[in-house]
Amino acid sequence: MSAQQHVFPSSAIEPTEPFLMQAKDQRFWLTKNHLDRFSETFHSMFRSPHIGSPEEGTVGNPLFLDGIDPGDFEPLVRWLTFGANPPRDFPYTTGQLLGMLRLVDMWSMKEAKDFCYAGLATLNPDPFFHLRVMTSFRDWDRLRPHVIQAVKLPVNDWPLRQPPVYEPLMILAIRLSEVRRHAAAAPYHIPCHQSCTNHALCTSSWENDWRINITAQVFHPTLPLPLDQCYNVMVNVSLNANPCRMLALSEMQVDGDFDIEHDLVTAAVKGIEKNFNT
């Protein structure tokens, strides 16, 4: 069976050296400068005198991609051709992006990998889907935003087929509940300034603002306010703050309890990585 040849329009970058690659029975024309620019693997290969031959990538000697399906390779060719703006009538599917992701991970193509993950985020908002994909590629530095989104979902909605992810997330959910109760359930203490003549009024006003703007928002069922935003929220509702309120805000600003969520999420990410590496 003769090989099918796919020729894509050139990109805005002027091609300097056409380079022919073949996946099974299908051939794809690319440009050597694109491969060199976007792939650490091909960059090293093109500069090594001991890899390949001068004729490799030509019609008579295409670079054969062993074990690679044309259906996975074609989306990568499309990305190299059109960049982040493919034709509207030729969109990427989840399956294509997953297949492309395997190749760009293997060939160290960071920009293409960023494109795949951005596309997958648009097509599938489920954080557990992204945790499953990213852990399969050991992309630990990309887990954090999806850990944050996953832990917001009710535990009953968590999939149980990923024990290495489930355990650190459960610990995170429990600890977040504890620190939020400690930091936000009851109004933060407001000291009495030496110049104050009616601290009961200062306390009542402060506690009312706290319950409305902090407690209710931190424990919001779908969009909880992060603890590290509590200080800014109270500053915004404390225009023309009296001396007592200024003291309370000063103490809040340096209180580490309002930054602890960052540490807990970091611990969860490290726990997931550890579970996959043991």
Offer a few descriptive terms.
278 residues, 2 domains, alpha/beta, BTB domain-containing protein, 4 strands, SKP1/BTB/POZ_sf, Potassium Channel Kv1.1, Chain A, disordered N terminus, 12 helices
Short description:
This protein is of the alpha/beta class and 278 residues long.
Secondary structure elements and pairings:
Elements: E1 4-6, E2 18-23, E3 26-31, H1 32-38, H2 40-46, E4 63-64, H3 70-82, H4 94-106, H5 110-123, H6 127-136, H7 144-150, H8 163-185, H9 199-218, H10 230-236, H11 243-253, H12 260-277
Parallel strand pairs: 1-3, 2-4
Antiparallel strand pairs: 2-3
Helix pairs in contact: 1-2, 3-4, 4-5, 6-7, 8-12
Protein architecture, described:
This is BTB domain-containing protein. It contains twelve helices and four strands; from the N terminus they run βββααβαααααααααα. It is 54% helix and 6% strand. The chain has 278 residues and is α/β, with parallel strands linked by helices. Strands 1-3-2-4 form a four-stranded mixed beta sheet. The longest helix is centred in the middle third of the chain and has 23 residues.
User: In the CATH hierarchy, what is the class of the largest domain?
Assistant: Alpha Beta
Radius of gyration: 27 Å
Report the CATH superfamily of the largest domain.
Potassium Channel Kv1.1, Chain A
**CATH third-level topology of the largest domain:** Potassium Channel Kv1.1, Chain A
- Report the major sheet: 4 strands, mixed
The succession of helices and strands, N to C, reads EEEHHEHHHHHHHHHH
Span between N and C termini? 47 Å
- State the helical fraction: 40-55%
Supply the number of structural domains: 2
Instruction: List the uncertain runs.
Output: 1-15
Percent strand equals 5-15%
General shape: elongated
What is the number of helices?
12
The count of β-strands is 4
Q: Could you report the average pLDDT, rounded to the nearest whole number? A: 88
| Class based on secondary structure composition and strand pairing | alpha/beta
CATH architecture of the largest domain: 2-Layer Sandwich
User: What is the topology, as strand order, of the major beta sheet?
Assistant: 1-3-2-4
